[in-house]
Specification:
This protein is an alpha/beta fold and about 280 residues long. The chain is about 40% helix and about 20% strand. The protein has 11 helices and 11 strands. α1 packs across α7 and α4 packs across α6.
């Protein structure tokens, strides 16, 4: 049986899925057609139901929860790992709602967390996450919400942090930051979902057993990223929640759902079980 699988080319995802998609673990009768895309592209594809299994931002998941369920393994969640709002000058936080701000996509968790901290923000410019720093430096926007490896490089480009949106979330809610999940179409039976989740967990366990060695698959898709930055990326975004959400992770998703509704980013609670059994 062949299933379509989408995840990003970022080191945390390629680290998790390397063994699964490159024959390093036995996947039995299951085969995977792999698509590597920016997370906002995957978010948009999820709206169309294009892939059987997909990485997607937590806000995007809530918007398509009628079609997909969260698998227990593979999530990006944790503490101290949220997006940052950065700029080339020290704008006062009281002025943030008036700034022209670049975001890495309307459906991203980064956009959601920006609204949690600044509910009145309106002047947003969606763009590819890797273009945000340069857009700030060129003066095309006043500030930008950065994610992924840009968390480790923005200071080298002369940018400064205005606020850590993840830290604001943690202080505001007391919950870990639910950045993104691996979800599978509801049309598939629960035993298959459990099987796929188990394979993702085994793939990650394989990767942890080899770490800190960086696999060629990770290097290949990290573009020009320095190896030290690759490890920083993996260390920040891959953790115990990636192996299993546990009760704390599931609770954080419920809090996210409540915040999304409170901030007008989610019209109504899906009223469905969000998690594969």
């Amino acid at each position: 049986m062949k299933l379509s699988l989408g995840f990003s080319p970022c080191p945390n995802d390629t680290f998790i899925f390397d063994a699964l998609v490159n024959g390093k673990i036995d996947t039995g009768e299951l085969q995977f057609q792999v698509y590597l895309e920016d997370v906002e592209t995957l978010n948009q594809w999820a709206q169309e139901g294009r892939l059987d299994i997909t990485k997607l931002s937590s806000l995007a998941f809530l918007q398509v929860a009628g079609q997909y369920m969260i698998l227990d393994a593979g999530s990006a969640m944790g503490k101290g790992c949220g997006p940052l709002l950065v700029a080339s000058r020290a704008w006062p936080l009281s002025s943030v709602s008036e700034l022209r701000i670049a975001i890495p996509g309307e459906h991203t968790t980064a956009n959601m967390l920006l609204h949690v901290a600044f509910p009145q923000v309106r002047n947003l410019v969606p763009m590819l996450f890797s273009d945000i720093e340069d857009a700030i430096l060129r003066g095309e926007v006043d500030a930008g919400v950065i994610i992924h490896e840009n968390r480790f490089t923005y200071q080298q480009k002369g940018l400064m942090k205005l606020i850590d949106l993840g830290d604001y979330w943690e202080q505001h809610t007391g919950a870990p930051i639910p950045l993104a999940f691996i979800a599978m179409k509801r049309s598939y039976p629960q035993p298959l979902m459990q099987q796929v989740s188990g394979l993702i967990r085994r793939s990650l366990e394989y990767a942890f057993a080899q770490y800190p060695r960086i696999a060629p698959f990770v290097r290949q898709h990290a573009q020009a990223m320095d190896e030290h930055v690759m490890r920083q990326h993996i260390d920040l975004y891959v953790n115990e929640y990636s192996l299993s959400l546990h009760d704390e992770g599931k609770k954080a998703i419920e809090v996210l759902q409540q915040e999304a509704m409170r901030n007008g980013m989610l019209a109504e609670v899906p009223g469905l079980s969000l998690f594969a059994a």
